[in-house]
Amino acid sequence: MNRPPFPKQDLHTLSDDGDELRFCTTCAFSQACLSEGMDKTALKDLHVLVEHVGPFHAGDYIFREGDPFEAIAAVRAGTVKTFVVDRDGNEHVLGFHLPGEVIGLNAIDGDIYPCNAVALDTAMLCRFSFPKMAVLAGRVPGLQAQLFRLLSRDIGRAALLAGDWSADQRMSAFLIAFSRRLAERGFSPRRFQLTMARTDIANYLRLAPETVSRVLRRFEEDGLLRVDRRDVELLDRDALMTLAAPVLRE
């Protein structure tokens, strides 16, 4: 089956195919549903906690830094950016969250959200009351283990760019990681749209915007990819993976 380019949605890629006994196949919590010991009663109890929210349009805040922490949310459709603003008013991008991924996990150890979350395009979410979820996780080992996995994954992604990597390595790692995350969710790993602005990508990679543009232009000249505004086609994934390997620790 030909996979659609992100962010195009169809029945195979929209996180919207769950029922009272299964989460949507692209949802981060689908693995919890498959875990041993997750009985039907527990699944129904977990689904009672789900609230569908949205749509959020580009620029809409899902939560703001300092808001009371009440829930985590799984992205059903669209892209969500998380970021903080320092005392001087400078924005620092923490990450970009795709369909099936969870936002709000970094608030678990406190009473408030430590960052902002904003929609980059039209986004739909599944909202989970965290206090109720925490109680349920105490008796559902699969759910508790999945929460730990998600937290560990977030920490791992944040640590990837902490090294002294070149601009080429950072950009290739971003593209390959983005491509893999899309493939896991049923989208094409080679053709996709970067739903975030170049300035946001540069901020996330700790590079200047002109450096990001220059690297993409050079990658295109070298035949590694094709770029048309925000549309990207990876022409030589192997070469990009070789560049990205030190950053991705492969």
Key traits:
250 residues, alpha+beta, Jelly Rolls, Arc Repressor Mutant, subunit A, 4-stranded antiparallel beta sheet, 8 helices, 11 strands, globular
Q: Can you characterise this structure?
A:
This protein is α+β, with helices and mostly antiparallel strands. The chain has 2 domains: 30-160, Jelly Rolls, CATH 2.60.120; 167-248, Arc Repressor Mutant, subunit A (Orthogonal Bundle), CATH 1.10.10.10. The chain is built from 8 helices and 11 strands. A 4-stranded antiparallel beta sheet has the order 1-8-3-6. The chain has a 4-stranded antiparallel beta sheet with strand order 2-7-4-5. The protein has a 3-stranded antiparallel beta sheet with strand order 9-11-10. The two termini are 29 Å apart. The relative contact order is 0.16. Mean pLDDT is 83; it is low at 10-15 and 32-38.
* Strand line-up of the largest beta sheet: 1-8-3-6
Shape: globular
What pattern of helices and strands is seen along the backbone? HHEEEEEEEEHHHEHHEEH
Taking pLDDT < 50 over at least 5 consecutive residues as the criterion, the unreliable ranges are 10-15, 32-38
Helix content: 25-40%
Terminal CA distance reads 29 Å
Record field, number of beta strands: 11
Mean pLDDT score, rounded? Answer: 83
Query: What is the CATH superfamily of the largest domain?
Result: Jelly Rolls
Supply the number of structural domains. Answer: 2
Structural class: alpha+beta
Number of helices: 8
Assign the CATH architecture of the largest domain: Sandwich
Largest sheet: 4 strands, antiparallel
Per CATH, what is the topology of the largest domain?
Jelly Rolls
Tell me the radius of gyration. Answer: 18 Å
